[in-house]
Amino acid sequence: MKIKKEKTAKTSLAYTAKNGYEKISPATRKHSDQINRLYMDFLAKGKTEREAHDEAIALLEAAGFKNMAANEKSGARLRPGDKVYRSCEGKTLMAVTIGKRPLADGMHIVGGHTDAPRIDIKQNPLYENSGLALLDTHYYGGIKKYQWVTIPLALHGVFVKPDGKKVKVCIGENPADPVFCITDLLPHLGADQGKKTLSEGIEGENLDAIVGSAPVAEKDRKEKFKYNVLKLLHERYGVKEEDFLSAELELVPANPPREAGLDRSMVLGYGQDDRVCAYTALKALLDVPGTPEYTSVVLLCDKEEIGSVGSTGMAANFFENSAAELLNLTTDKYSELTLKRAMANSWMLSADVNALFDPLYPAVSEKKNTAVMNHGVCVTKYCGSRGKSGSSDASAEFIAHIRRIFDRGGVTWQTGELGKVDQGGGGTIAYLMARYGMKVIDCGVGLLSMHAPMELAGKLDIYMAYKGYLAFLKDGRK
Ligand code: MN
Ligand code: MN
Question: If you measure from the C-alpha of residue 366 to the centroid of ligand 2, how many angstroms do you get, rounded to a whole number?
Answer without folding.
Answer: 20
